[in-house]
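Q: Sequence in, structure out?
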Amino acid sequence: MKKDIKNEKVVASEEEIAKGNSTHSKKISGAQTELLITHASPQSEVMAVMHQMTHQKIRANEKWGAIPMIQENINVVYDIIESNDFKKKDVLLPIIIRWKDGNFNQVDKDHNAIWKLQGGSIGKAYGIMSAEEERWFIIKNFKEDVLTVWLEENK
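A: Exactly. Output:
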């Protein structure tokens, strides 16, 4: 593992990634498979879920909590945002629509937009994990059925 002193970023080698040893794909505290939000949930809880979903895909030196970024979860969050009149709906809806469409090209920027709305100060995303890093993140943080769903969605 190398540390980019200039930007304070931890970078894993290809060998470390292949062994599942990327800093970004390590086991983190607070990982769960349940969404635990409903149409009655406040905006803050929906943002917390979206934030934790991004942890499966982003590079950041600090991550707390994770929820699987799978289509079923994305659809539930979309339905909740679409049917509510959240104060930050104008920010959240375009993000969840991108994810619903399978577009994760700017998921690091999505993370940071949500993180900033939440008043984040530690754990800013600075990139997107490779598919191999994401696979290891799923293996280390979620149940095997999540990996099966993710593999099927990413054929």
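Residues 2-153 form one domain.
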